[in-house]
Design brief:
This protein is an alpha+beta fold. It is about 35% helix and about 20% strand. The chain is built from eleven helices and ten strands. The strands form three sheets. It has a five-stranded mixed β-sheet with strand order 4-5-6-9-10. A three-stranded mixed β-sheet has the order 2-1-3. The longest helix is centred in the C-terminal third of the chain and has 21 residues. The relative contact order is 0.15.
Protein backbone atom coordinates (compact mmCIF):
# COMPACT_ATOMS: atom_id res chain seq x y z
CA UNK A 1 0.00 0.00 0.00
CA UNK A 2 1.02 3.62 -0.40
CA UNK A 3 3.26 4.46 2.57
CA UNK A 4 4.87 7.81 1.81
CA UNK A 5 4.38 10.65 -0.62
CA UNK A 6 7.41 12.28 -2.18
CA UNK A 7 7.31 16.05 -1.91
CA UNK A 8 8.69 18.34 -4.64
CA UNK A 9 11.77 18.97 -2.44
CA UNK A 10 12.37 15.21 -2.08
CA UNK A 11 11.03 14.78 1.46
CA UNK A 12 9.13 11.56 2.12
CA UNK A 13 6.05 12.19 4.23
CA UNK A 14 3.78 9.45 5.65
CA UNK A 15 0.43 9.34 3.87
CA UNK A 16 -1.68 9.81 7.00
CA UNK A 17 0.40 12.82 8.03
CA UNK A 18 -0.15 14.43 4.65
CA UNK A 19 -3.89 13.67 4.75
CA UNK A 20 -4.14 15.40 8.14
CA UNK A 21 -2.57 18.48 6.61
CA UNK A 22 0.45 18.20 8.90
CA UNK A 23 2.96 19.40 6.32
CA UNK A 24 6.66 19.54 7.31
CA UNK A 25 7.09 22.66 5.17
CA UNK A 26 5.96 26.22 6.00
CA UNK A 27 3.49 26.15 3.08
CA UNK A 28 1.90 23.25 1.21
CA UNK A 29 2.96 22.36 -2.31
CA UNK A 30 -0.70 21.99 -3.40
CA UNK A 31 -4.21 22.56 -2.02
CA UNK A 32 -5.02 20.13 0.78
CA UNK A 33 -8.23 18.93 -0.92
CA UNK A 34 -6.23 18.04 -4.02
CA UNK A 35 -3.54 16.28 -1.97
CA UNK A 36 -6.18 14.13 -0.29
CA UNK A 37 -7.66 13.23 -3.66
CA UNK A 38 -4.21 12.17 -4.87
CA UNK A 39 -3.82 9.90 -1.86
CA UNK A 40 -7.02 7.92 -2.36
CA UNK A 41 -6.28 4.23 -2.81
CA UNK A 42 -8.55 1.27 -3.51
CA UNK A 43 -8.49 -1.38 -0.82
CA UNK A 44 -7.75 -4.95 -1.94
CA UNK A 45 -10.79 -7.09 -1.13
CA UNK A 46 -9.76 -10.32 -2.80
CA UNK A 47 -11.43 -9.77 -6.19
CA UNK A 48 -9.04 -8.63 -8.93
CA UNK A 49 -10.17 -5.91 -11.30
CA UNK A 50 -9.81 -5.83 -15.06
CA UNK A 51 -7.24 -3.04 -14.68
CA UNK A 52 -5.16 -5.06 -12.21
CA UNK A 53 -5.09 -8.00 -14.61
CA UNK A 54 -4.20 -5.86 -17.61
CA UNK A 55 -1.17 -4.60 -15.67
CA UNK A 56 1.83 -6.83 -15.21
CA UNK A 57 1.19 -9.48 -12.55
CA UNK A 58 4.30 -8.44 -10.64
CA UNK A 59 3.16 -4.80 -10.62
CA UNK A 60 -0.29 -5.70 -9.28
CA UNK A 61 1.17 -8.13 -6.73
CA UNK A 62 3.64 -5.56 -5.38
CA UNK A 63 1.00 -2.83 -5.22
CA UNK A 64 -1.13 -5.09 -3.01
CA UNK A 65 1.61 -6.64 -0.89
CA UNK A 66 4.36 -3.99 -0.67
CA UNK A 67 4.69 -0.59 0.89
CA UNK A 68 5.68 1.96 -1.70
CA UNK A 69 6.26 5.68 -2.17
CA UNK A 70 4.80 7.84 -4.91
CA UNK A 71 5.44 11.39 -6.07
CA UNK A 72 2.59 13.83 -6.49
CA UNK A 73 3.74 14.45 -10.05
CA UNK A 74 2.63 10.96 -11.07
CA UNK A 75 -0.57 11.14 -9.01
CA UNK A 76 -1.65 14.35 -10.77
CA UNK A 77 -2.28 12.46 -14.02
CA UNK A 78 -4.41 9.89 -12.22
CA UNK A 79 -6.54 12.63 -10.66
CA UNK A 80 -6.80 14.36 -14.03
CA UNK A 81 -8.15 11.16 -15.54
CA UNK A 82 -10.65 10.69 -12.71
CA UNK A 83 -11.87 14.29 -13.07
CA UNK A 84 -12.30 13.90 -16.81
CA UNK A 85 -14.36 10.74 -16.30
CA UNK A 86 -16.62 12.51 -13.81
CA UNK A 87 -17.25 15.35 -16.26
CA UNK A 88 -17.94 13.03 -19.19
CA UNK A 89 -20.18 10.55 -17.39
CA UNK A 90 -23.78 11.67 -17.68
CA UNK A 91 -27.01 9.78 -18.13
CA UNK A 92 -29.20 10.63 -21.12
CA UNK A 93 -31.94 8.01 -20.98
CA UNK A 94 -30.58 5.85 -23.78
CA UNK A 95 -27.04 5.22 -22.52
CA UNK A 96 -25.28 3.96 -19.40
CA UNK A 97 -22.24 5.36 -17.62
CA UNK A 98 -19.92 3.92 -14.98
CA UNK A 99 -21.67 0.54 -14.93
CA UNK A 100 -19.90 -1.91 -12.60
CA UNK A 101 -19.89 -5.66 -13.09
CA UNK A 102 -18.35 -8.84 -11.71
CA UNK A 103 -17.82 -11.83 -13.96
CA UNK A 104 -15.97 -15.06 -13.12
CA UNK A 105 -14.33 -13.47 -10.09
CA UNK A 106 -13.16 -10.34 -11.94
CA UNK A 107 -14.60 -6.86 -11.35
CA UNK A 108 -14.76 -4.02 -13.83
CA UNK A 109 -16.48 -0.74 -14.62
CA UNK A 110 -17.48 0.23 -18.14
CA UNK A 111 -17.18 3.97 -18.75
CA UNK A 112 -20.01 4.36 -21.23
CA UNK A 113 -22.46 2.21 -23.13
CA UNK A 114 -23.83 4.65 -25.68
CA UNK A 115 -26.68 4.24 -28.11
CA UNK A 116 -25.86 5.54 -31.59
CA UNK A 117 -28.34 7.34 -33.89
CA UNK A 118 -28.77 4.08 -35.83
CA UNK A 119 -29.78 2.25 -32.66
CA UNK A 120 -26.49 0.35 -32.15
CA UNK A 121 -25.02 0.13 -28.67
CA UNK A 122 -21.31 1.01 -28.49
CA UNK A 123 -18.99 0.53 -25.53
CA UNK A 124 -16.71 3.54 -25.09
CA UNK A 125 -13.83 4.06 -22.68
CA UNK A 126 -12.33 7.47 -21.91
CA UNK A 127 -8.56 7.60 -21.45
CA UNK A 128 -6.43 10.56 -20.38
CA UNK A 129 -3.01 9.44 -21.58
CA UNK A 130 0.37 10.72 -22.69
CA UNK A 131 1.39 11.19 -26.31
CA UNK A 132 3.77 8.21 -26.16
CA UNK A 133 0.88 5.84 -25.43
CA UNK A 134 -1.21 7.38 -28.21
CA UNK A 135 1.70 7.12 -30.64
CA UNK A 136 1.99 3.41 -29.85
CA UNK A 137 -1.72 2.95 -30.48
CA UNK A 138 -1.44 4.74 -33.83
CA UNK A 139 1.63 2.80 -34.96
CA UNK A 140 4.20 5.60 -34.76
CA UNK A 141 7.67 4.30 -33.94
CA UNK A 142 11.15 5.79 -33.77
CA UNK A 143 13.72 4.53 -36.25
CA UNK A 144 17.25 5.53 -37.20
CA UNK A 145 17.53 7.36 -40.50
CA UNK A 146 20.50 8.62 -42.45
CA UNK A 147 21.48 12.29 -42.17
CA UNK A 148 21.67 13.85 -45.62
CA UNK A 149 23.18 17.16 -46.70
CA UNK A 150 21.39 19.84 -48.73
CA UNK A 151 22.06 17.89 -51.93
CA UNK A 152 20.64 14.64 -50.59
CA UNK A 153 24.03 13.00 -50.01
CA UNK A 154 24.91 10.96 -46.95
CA UNK A 155 26.84 12.88 -44.28
CA UNK A 156 29.76 11.27 -42.45
CA UNK A 157 31.57 11.96 -39.19
CA UNK A 158 34.76 13.89 -39.95
CA UNK A 159 36.46 13.62 -36.57
CA UNK A 160 36.48 11.57 -33.39
CA UNK A 161 36.01 7.86 -32.77
CA UNK A 162 33.27 7.67 -35.40
CA UNK A 163 35.31 9.31 -38.15
CA UNK A 164 34.24 7.97 -41.54
CA UNK A 165 31.02 6.43 -40.25
CA UNK A 166 27.65 7.59 -41.64
CA UNK A 167 25.64 10.00 -39.51
CA UNK A 168 22.16 8.89 -38.40
CA UNK A 169 19.42 10.35 -36.27
CA UNK A 170 16.14 9.29 -34.73
CA UNK A 171 12.99 9.84 -36.78
CA UNK A 172 9.35 9.02 -36.11
CA UNK A 173 7.54 7.04 -38.82
CA UNK A 174 4.18 5.32 -39.04
CA UNK A 175 4.16 1.55 -39.26
CA UNK A 176 0.60 0.28 -38.91
CA UNK A 177 1.88 -3.26 -38.35
CA UNK A 178 3.39 -2.05 -35.06
CA UNK A 179 0.27 -0.29 -33.78
CA UNK A 180 -0.17 -1.51 -30.20
CA UNK A 181 -3.65 -1.38 -28.67
CA UNK A 182 -3.39 -4.75 -26.96
CA UNK A 183 -4.22 -3.70 -23.40
CA UNK A 184 -7.10 -1.46 -24.51
CA UNK A 185 -8.41 -4.22 -26.76
CA UNK A 186 -8.38 -6.82 -23.99
CA UNK A 187 -9.89 -4.43 -21.45
CA UNK A 188 -12.78 -3.28 -23.63
CA UNK A 189 -13.54 -6.78 -24.85
CA UNK A 190 -13.86 -8.02 -21.27
CA UNK A 191 -16.17 -5.11 -20.49
CA UNK A 192 -18.14 -6.02 -23.63
CA UNK A 193 -18.57 -9.59 -22.43
CA UNK A 194 -19.62 -8.33 -18.98
CA UNK A 195 -22.25 -6.05 -20.53
CA UNK A 196 -23.59 -8.66 -22.92
CA UNK A 197 -23.86 -11.36 -20.25
CA UNK A 198 -25.26 -9.06 -17.55
CA UNK A 199 -27.45 -6.50 -19.33
CA UNK A 200 -28.28 -8.54 -22.40
CA UNK A 201 -27.21 -5.82 -24.85
CA UNK A 202 -25.38 -6.71 -28.03
CA UNK A 203 -22.37 -4.41 -28.30
CA UNK A 204 -21.81 -3.53 -31.95
CA UNK A 205 -18.52 -1.63 -31.60
CA UNK A 206 -15.76 -0.70 -29.18
CA UNK A 207 -14.09 2.69 -29.04
CA UNK A 208 -11.37 4.43 -27.05
CA UNK A 209 -11.69 8.18 -26.62
CA UNK A 210 -8.08 9.13 -25.91
CA UNK A 211 -7.52 12.62 -24.50
CA UNK A 212 -3.84 13.54 -24.92
CA UNK A 213 -2.77 15.15 -21.66
CA UNK A 214 0.36 16.66 -23.24
CA UNK A 215 -1.33 17.48 -26.54
CA UNK A 216 0.13 20.28 -28.68
CA UNK A 217 3.49 20.15 -26.88
CA UNK A 218 6.87 19.61 -28.49
CA UNK A 219 7.02 16.14 -26.93
CA UNK A 220 3.70 15.16 -28.48
CA UNK A 221 4.67 16.53 -31.87
CA UNK A 222 7.92 14.56 -31.77
CA UNK A 223 5.75 11.42 -31.66
CA UNK A 224 3.61 12.74 -34.56
CA UNK A 225 0.66 13.15 -32.21
CA UNK A 226 -0.81 16.40 -33.49
CA UNK A 227 -4.34 16.34 -32.04
CA UNK A 228 -5.60 16.74 -28.49
CA UNK A 229 -7.93 13.78 -28.66
CA UNK A 230 -8.43 10.66 -30.78
CA UNK A 231 -11.47 8.42 -31.23
CA UNK A 232 -9.99 5.01 -31.90
CA UNK A 233 -11.64 1.82 -33.12
CA UNK A 234 -10.94 -1.28 -31.06
CA UNK A 235 -11.20 -4.77 -32.53
CA UNK A 236 -13.80 -7.19 -31.19
CA UNK A 237 -12.07 -10.42 -30.17
CA UNK A 238 -13.55 -13.90 -29.78
CA UNK A 239 -15.01 -14.39 -26.30
CA UNK A 240 -12.95 -17.52 -25.68
CA UNK A 241 -9.69 -15.64 -26.35
CA UNK A 242 -10.57 -12.85 -23.93
CA UNK A 243 -11.86 -15.12 -21.17
CA UNK A 244 -8.80 -17.39 -21.41
CA UNK A 245 -6.46 -14.39 -21.04
CA UNK A 246 -8.22 -12.97 -17.98
CA UNK A 247 -8.70 -16.34 -16.30
CA UNK A 248 -4.98 -17.03 -16.72
CA UNK A 249 -3.95 -13.61 -15.39
CA UNK A 250 -6.43 -13.88 -12.50
CA UNK A 251 -5.04 -17.26 -11.46
CA UNK A 252 -1.45 -16.01 -11.70
CA UNK A 253 -2.20 -13.07 -9.39
CA UNK A 254 -4.23 -15.07 -6.86
CA UNK A 255 -1.64 -17.87 -6.76
CA UNK A 256 1.14 -15.33 -6.17
CA UNK A 257 -0.82 -13.64 -3.38
CA UNK A 258 -1.83 -16.91 -1.71
CA UNK A 259 1.67 -18.35 -1.90
CA UNK A 260 3.53 -15.08 -1.25
CA UNK A 261 5.54 -15.76 -4.40
CA UNK A 262 6.80 -12.76 -6.35
CA UNK A 263 5.75 -13.12 -10.00
CA UNK A 264 8.22 -12.70 -12.87
CA UNK A 265 8.99 -9.22 -14.18
CA UNK A 266 6.43 -7.56 -16.42
CA UNK A 267 6.49 -8.50 -20.09
CA UNK A 268 7.79 -6.18 -22.79
CA UNK A 269 4.30 -5.01 -23.72
CA UNK A 270 3.26 -4.53 -20.08
CA UNK A 271 6.19 -2.23 -19.29
CA UNK A 272 6.51 -0.62 -22.74
CA UNK A 273 9.86 -2.29 -23.46
CA UNK A 274 11.25 -1.05 -20.15
CA UNK A 275 10.10 2.56 -20.46
CA UNK A 276 7.84 2.27 -17.39
CA UNK A 277 10.75 0.89 -15.37
CA UNK A 278 12.86 4.01 -15.70
CA UNK A 279 11.43 6.10 -12.86
CA UNK A 280 8.86 6.29 -10.09
CA UNK A 281 6.85 8.71 -12.21
CA UNK A 282 6.17 5.83 -14.61
CA UNK A 283 6.00 3.01 -12.09
CA UNK A 284 5.57 3.64 -8.33
CA UNK A 285 6.54 0.00 -7.71
CA UNK A 286 10.01 0.48 -9.17
CA UNK A 287 11.93 0.38 -5.87
CA UNK A 288 10.01 -2.65 -4.59
CA UNK A 289 10.63 -4.37 -7.93
CA UNK A 290 14.38 -3.67 -7.70
CA UNK A 291 14.46 -5.21 -4.22
CA UNK A 292 12.73 -8.34 -5.51
CA UNK A 293 15.29 -8.71 -8.31
CA UNK A 294 14.97 -10.46 -11.62
CA UNK A 295 13.88 -7.46 -13.68
CA UNK A 296 15.98 -7.28 -16.87
CA UNK A 297 14.40 -3.94 -17.80
CA UNK A 298 15.87 -2.24 -14.75
CA UNK A 299 19.21 -4.03 -15.00
CA UNK A 300 19.64 -3.05 -18.65
CA UNK A 301 20.47 0.43 -19.86
CA UNK A 302 17.29 1.31 -21.72
CA UNK A 303 18.19 4.91 -22.49
CA UNK A 304 18.34 5.60 -26.21
CA UNK A 305 21.07 7.70 -27.72
CA UNK A 306 19.76 10.46 -29.94
CA UNK A 307 22.89 12.15 -31.17
CA UNK A 308 23.49 13.09 -34.80
CA UNK A 309 27.07 14.25 -34.43
Amino acid sequence: MLKNVICPDGKRVPVEQCKRGDCPNPVRCRPLSFLRLCLEEREWKGVPSVTQLINGTRYSYLKIRSDYDESFDSAVYRVLGTSAHAALDEEDGVSYTEESFTLDGVSGTADRIEQQPNGEMWLIDHKVVGSFKVAKALGYVKVRENVLDANGNQEYFKTGAKKGQPKTRWATVKDITKADRKDWTLQLNYYRIMVEKTLGYKIAALRIHAIVRDGNTMAAKSYMVDKKDYYLEIDILPDDTVLAYFNHKKQMLLDALDGHIVPPACSASECWEGRKCKSLDYCPMRQACIEMGGNPWIAADTDDEEETA
